[in-house]
Design brief:
single chain, about 375 residues, alpha/beta, GMP Synthetase, Chain A, domain 3, Rossmann fold, 8-stranded mixed sheet, 3-stranded mixed sheet
C-alpha cells in the first residue's frame, strides 16, 4: 500500500472495499423510531460518527438523556437493521446521550446561578407524610446513576430532612461574596437549610423570610453545569412555592401521593397549583402502593389501591411508578443510605429507577416540542 493510500484510509476511517455506503446505513437506521417522539432516529439527529471498515459498520446513537428507559431496545433495533444490510458482517452500536436543555423564553431573565442547569424538576405532593422527600432523593440518585449531573435542593425549610437522608457530613462553603458552594453526596450537589441549623432546632421563619432563604439557594449557590436539578417542595401551596416559580424556570413537576383518597384531596391542590403556574406535570408517583409479606407473594394493599393511577388518568398524565412498601427504605433514610444506592435491585429501587427514566422521557418530549424539532420535521416531511 502506497503512502498516499495509507493516509487516505486513515482520513476516511479505514478502507471500505465492501461497497457498503453511508446512505445505506442511514436508510437502515431510519427504520428505527424513537417510541416517544414517534420519528426515526436519523431525522431526529441521533445518528453520529458512521464508520465503515470493510464488512464492519460502527455507529454512535446519541440520545436525549442518559436515563432513557428504552436505550437497550433502541440499540437492539439498530443492530438488527444494520445486520440486514447486504455485506455487513460485524456491527458496533455505541449508545451515548446528551441531555437536552429546556427551551426558555428568550425574553425571560435566568439568574446566573441557574444558567448551567438544563432541567429543573419539582417534586411535590401538597401535603406531608406521603414519601415526597424520600421520592425526591431516590429520583435524584436514580438519575445520577445513569451518568447525569444532578443537584438536589431541599426547599422544605420548616422540615429539612434531606441532609440526614443523604448523610451529608460537611457544610456548604463560602465561595466568595454571596456565593455558596454546595457539598456533594455521592456526586450529587445538595443544599438545605438543615446544613445551617442543628437537627434539633426548630426553624422559625415568617413566610417572606422563608422565601428569601429559598431565593438565596436558587441565586447564590454555585450549581454549575447540571442535567437535572431536583427540588424537594415543602407541603402546601404557599410562599415558598411561589418564590421558586418566580425565581427558577421549573421545567416540569413530579407529583407524589399515596393510594387513599385522603391523600388525593391535597395532592389535587398541588396539581392545580402547577397548572396555574404553567408548569407541566410530568406524571404521578404512588408511594406505599402495596406490601409483599415474607413467605407469600401476595400484594397487600394497606392504603387501598388505585389512587395514583386514578389521579394520573383524571389529570391526563402518566403514572410514573408505583413504589412498594419496603422497611429498608425507611431504614436507609434514617441512616443516610438512599434505597436506590443501597439496594439497586430491590423492587422499590427498580420502581424508582423506572420512574426516573419515565420522567426523563417526558422532559425529552417537552423539550423537543418546545424546540420545534417535531414541527420542523413534519413540515419537511410534507415537502
Amino acid at each position: 500500500m502506497g503512502l498516499f493510500s495509507s493516509v487516505k484510509d486513515k482520513l476516511s476511517g479505514g478502507s471500505n472495499r465492501s461497497g457498503i455506503t453511508e446512505e445505506q446505513v442511514k436508510e437502515a437506521l431510519a427504520k428505527v423510531q424513537d417510541p416517544d417522539l414517534h420519528q426515526d432516529i436519523v431525522a431526529l439527529g441521533f445518528v453520529r460518527n458512521i464508520v465503515i471498515k470493510g464488512d464492519k459498520v460502527s455507529v454512535e446513537v446519541n440520545l436525549t438523556t442518559p436515563a432513557c428507559p428504552v436505550k437497550e431496545q433502541l440499540k437492539a433495533q439498530c443492530e438488527s437493521e444494520l445486520r440486514a444490510i447486504p455485506g455487513v458482517a460485524h456491527v458496533e452500536v455505541t449508545m451515548t446521550a446528551t441531555t437536552r436543555a429546556a427551551q426558555r423564553d428568550n425574553n425571560a431573565a435566568v439568574v446566573p446561578a441557574l444558567a448551567g442547569v438544563k432541567n429543573i424538576i419539582a417534586v411535590a405532593s401538597g401535603k406531608g407524610g406521603v414519601g415526597k422527600s424520600t421520592s425526591a432523593v431516590n429520583l435524584a440518585y436514580a438519575l445520577a446513576r445513569t451518568g447525569s449531573k444532578v443537584g438536589l435542593l431541599d426547599a422544605d425549610v420548616y422540615g429539612p430532612s434531606i441532609p440526614r437522608m443523604v448523610r451529608i457530613t460537611q457544610l456548604a462553603e463560602e465561595g466568595g461574596p454571596n456565593v455558596i458552594i454546595p457539598p456533594l453526596a455521592d456526586g450529587i450537589k445538595v443544599i438545605s437549610v438543615g446544613m445551617f441549623t442543628q437537627a434539633s432546632d426548630a426553624t422559625i421563619l415568617r413566610g417572606p423570610m422563608a422565601g428569601s432563604v429559598i431565593k438565596q439557594f436558587l441565586t447564590q449557590v454555585q450549581w454549575g453545569e447540571l442535567d437535572y436539578l431536583v427540588i424537594d417542595y415543602p407541603p402546601g401551596t404557599g410562599d415558598i412555592q411561589l418564590t421558586i416559580s418566580q425565581t427558577a424556570p421549573v421545567t416540569g413537576a413530579v407529583i407524589v401521593t399515596t393510594p387513599q383518597e385522603v391523600s388525593l384531596i391535597d395532592v389535587r391542590k398541588a396539581m392545580s397549583m402547577f397548572k396555574t403556574l404553567k408548569v407541566p406535570v410530568l406524571g404521578v408517583i404512588e408511594t406505599m402502593s402495596y406490601f409483599v409479606c415474607d413467605g407469600c407473594d401476595k400484594k397487600h394493599q394497606i392504603f387501598r389501591s388505585g389512587g395514583g393511577e386514578r389521579l394520573a388518568r383524571e389529570s391526563g398524565v402518566s403514572l410514573l411508578g408505583a413504589i412498594p412498601i419496603d422497611p429498608r427504605v425507611a431504614v436507609g433514610g434514617d441512616e443516610g443510605r438512599p434505597h436506590v444506592a443501597a439496594f439497586p435491585e430491590a423492587p422499590a429501587s427498580q420502581a424508582y429507577i423506572a420512574a426516573a427514566g419515565a420522567a426523563a422521557q417526558q422532559l425529552s418530549i417537552l423539550n423537543a416540542q418546545a424546540s420545534g424539532i417535531l414541527n420542523q420535521f413534519a413540515l419537511e416531511w410534507k415537502n
